[in-house]
Write a structure and sequence with these properties.
Elements lengths: L1 E5 L2 E5 L4 H19 L10 E6 L15 E4 L1 E11 L3 E4 H5 L6 H8 L3 E4 L6 H16 L8 E5 L10 H8 L6 E5 L5 H16 L3 E8 L10 H4 L5 E11 L20 E2 L2 E6 L12 E5 L3 E2 L1 H23 L9 E2 L5 H10 L7 E2 L2 H4 L6
Parallel strand pairs: 8-9, 8-10, 16-17
Antiparallel strand pairs: 1-2, 1-3, 3-4, 5-11, 6-7, 10-11, 12-15, 13-14
Helix pairs in contact: 4-5, 8-9
Length: about 375
Amino acid sequence: MKSITIPSKSWAFTSRSKGTVRDSLVNCLQQAIVRSRVHPPDRITKRVSCASTDHGVDQLSPSQSKPSRLVWKGCKLVGCGSAVPNLVVSNDDLSKIVDTNDEWISVRTGIRNRRVLTGKDRMTGLAVEAAQKALEMANVDPDDVDLVLLCTSTPDDLFGSAPQIQAALGCKGNPLAFDITAACSGFVLGLVSASCYIRGGGFKNVLVIGADALSRYVDWTDRGTCILFGDAAGAVLVQACDSEEDGLFGFDLHSDGEGHRHLHTGIKENEALVTNGSVAGFPPKGGSYSFIQMNGKEVFRFACRVVPQSIEIALENAGLTRSSIDWLLLHQANQRILDAVATRLEIPANRVISNLANYGWFPNF
């Protein structure tokens, strides 16, 4: 008899073929790993016991029945860092460019200042600075980093900027590094992706960086958007740990492609590079990205409706209730959104973290 048992549910297989038993065991472990993505440690197994004998498990002596143990891994945040450009642009500064003023902006958004990259600065520079601070806090050497995830919608290189950051940090082992493009959801997706790499892939130290320079794509004559966005970078080091120390209990992720029309920065065609091609439409015109286009009212309504729902589901997946929340850290987009979400969840305002007054709408945090 050959068997694998997981608390609350068991799978048993009997076979003379070792290959068949091995394949069955792998399938069971894969199912257990999938369950670990959405359930907290106390609702899934913490260890899997395996035994094998031709005479059945009951007849094993203590010395013969020492099972091998596969311990479910957790993940925790062990370091964080941030970086912002030196240039501060106030509401009063913007009032000299567009028809607005400090009161109009602050009442509608809660924003008074934002940080903006100058011509000499680069997004990757901010990302590297934030990552270095996170590694320093965690007391982890760059050579011990297994994966670098850069969450950005404004890379310095269209082919991706994460490898540049990996090189700048001096990661001699050449760990995997790639970009995640998901706009305001970028950092959350990076955090969940890091947990999956740790729990399912055996990674130990994953660097998650959120960095954007949206000032490059802002129409500074458009009062509806130029008052909002700021540039910055933030980073956390996510580290493997025993299940008892796990720090990510549950999450809820969705995408709604129908909302594209309300917030986008689309590709636009420039003048053709060559005008005397022999084939119609070829060579193609050069491309670049347009300024940010946003329907503020629809974005506001969507966030106030969907964010509380998603939080409720994440709490349910984690086996927690609203009363368990000590601090509510939401995407820093608009103070009115933060207030509306907290009100719907019945969370006191003094438990809601907000720093957008001095940094503006930074997409990844």
